């Protein structure tokens, strides 16, 4: 595997899940693969889980790891070609990327949507430059539009906890004070469409996700109706994807607190498990009572980030 961006990059999902459970049984069994190999993890944005779980995954595989916080200690990077570089940006990404590539065997990059241009964000301008110019395999650690390591961990968690062969999984928008990217819901939708689940998306009008991610999912604007009989509730905020009104891209259109997942919402489900990728704003996205309930999977879900990252790095090492 040279690029990990979409669910299709993993090939057959059942095989990938079996590999994840094999890794989980003994996460150090593939140490020989990473000997004298280096993973470079590049962060343009903050992280707790991705940073720690991916480092741990690389160490599980016997790799050396370098972590670079681009905004803390590196030269400020220009990303646009043709710009006269007379501002505070000292280095161009077009030199920085091949230089970074020369120090490692595999590169992970986190670079969020900037909301400056929907076109640039949805074309994955930054990540595609790493793919093109680094000369190394690249995996997405949350880009402008997708967060595949998270979605793979979410799928592993659903597989572990499901009580029926084909559970009902609901992705629900929930309120948040700031404008958040669509990467997590986009990826979650993409992965759930590929998995064997009954998948429903619910959100207020105006928050329609890009059709390339919605796929065949059922979209239900009545949140309570969507929750009825659900086995898993996956809550997440996202800003306006700009599908119906491009001029609203990246805007917060609603902070309607009636969408906060509380016990009344969970009561209409099939004793559903609650999921969220974290970090989460308590009593905006979900109440204290729901996130602290025995049905909350937020901690095992985060723990599975180590497993999803180990499988992805293992696949990349095997293909070097
Ligand atoms: N879920 C997730 O990616 O967490 P971080 O932003 O802390 O890495």
TrEMBL record:
GO MF terms held by the record: amino acid binding; ornithine carbamoyltransferase activity
Entry keyword set: Amino-acid biosynthesis, Arginine biosynthesis, Transferase
Span of domain Aspartate/ornithine carbamoyltransferase carbamoyl-P binding: 12-160
Domain of life: Bacteria
Pathways involved: Amino-acid biosynthesis; L-arginine biosynthesis
EC number: 2.1.3.11
Residues covered by the Aspartate/ornithine carbamoyltransferase Asp/Orn-binding domain: 184-312
InterPro entries: ArgF'-like, Asp/Orn_carbamoyltranf_P-bd, Asp/Orn_carbamoylTrfase, Asp/Orn_carbamoylTrfase_sf, Asp_carbamoyltransf_Asp/Orn-bd
A Pfam entry, by short name: OTCace_N
Signal sequence residues: none
Keyword Amino-acid biosynthesis: yes
Substrates-to-products reaction catalysed: N(2)-succinyl-L-ornithine + carbamoyl phosphate = N(2)-succinyl-L-citrulline + phosphate + H(+)
Entry binding sites for N(2)-succinyl-L-ornithine: 142, 176, 236, 281
Annotated carbamoyl phosphate binding sites: 47-50, 75, 110, 147-150, 277-278, 305
One of the GO BP terms on file: L-arginine biosynthetic process via ornithine
Family: Belongs to the aspartate/ornithine carbamoyltransferase superfamily. SOTCase family.
Record note on quaternary structure: Homotrimer.
Role played: Catalyzes the transfer of the carbamoyl group from carbamoyl phosphate to the delta-amino group of N(2)-succinyl-L-ornithine to produce N(2)-succinyl-L-citrulline. Is essential for arginine biosynthesis.
Protein name: N-succinylornithine carbamoyltransferase
Organism: Candidatus Paraprevotella stercoravium
């Amino acid at each position: 595997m040279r690029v990990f961006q979409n669910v299709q990059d993993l090939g057959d999902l059942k095989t990938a899940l079996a590999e994840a459970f094999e890794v989980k049984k003994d996460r150090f069994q593939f140490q020989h693969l990473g000997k004298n190999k280096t993973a470079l993890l590049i962060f343009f944005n903050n992280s707790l889980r991705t940073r720690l779980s991916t480092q741990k995954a690389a160490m599980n595989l016997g790799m050396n790891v370098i972590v670079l916080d681009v905004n803390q200690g590196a030269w400020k990077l220009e990303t646009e070609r043709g710009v006269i570089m007379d501002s505070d940006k000292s280095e161009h990404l077009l030199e920085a990327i091949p230089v970074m590539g020369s120090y490692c065997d595999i590169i992970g990059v986190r670079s969020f949507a900037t909301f400056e241009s929907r076109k640039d964000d949805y074309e994955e301008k930054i990540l595609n430059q790493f793919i093109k110019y680094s000369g190394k395999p690249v995996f997405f650690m949350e880009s402008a539009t997708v967060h595949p390591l998270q979605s793979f961990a979410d799928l592993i968690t659903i597989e572990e906890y499901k009580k029926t062969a084909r559970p009902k999984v609901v992705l629900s928008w929930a309120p948040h004070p700031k404008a958040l990217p669509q990467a997590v819901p986009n990826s979650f939708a993409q992965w759930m469409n590929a998995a064997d689940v009954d998948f429903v998306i619910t959100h207020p009008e105006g928050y329609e996700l890009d059709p390339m991610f919605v796929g065949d999912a059922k979209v239900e604007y009545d949140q309570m109706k969507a929750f009825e009989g659900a086995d898993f509730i996956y809550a997440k905020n996202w800003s306006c994807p700009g599908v119906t009104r491009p001029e609203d891209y990246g805007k917060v259109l609603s902070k309607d607190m009636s969408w906060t997942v509380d016990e009344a919402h969970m009561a209409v489900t099939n004793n559903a498990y609650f999921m969220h990728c974290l970090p989460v704003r308590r009593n905006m996205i979900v109440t204290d009572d729901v996130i602290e309930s025995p049905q909350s999977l937020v901690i095992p879900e985060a723990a599975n980030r180590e497993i999803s990252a180990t499988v992805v790095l293992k696949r990349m090492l095997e293909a070097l």
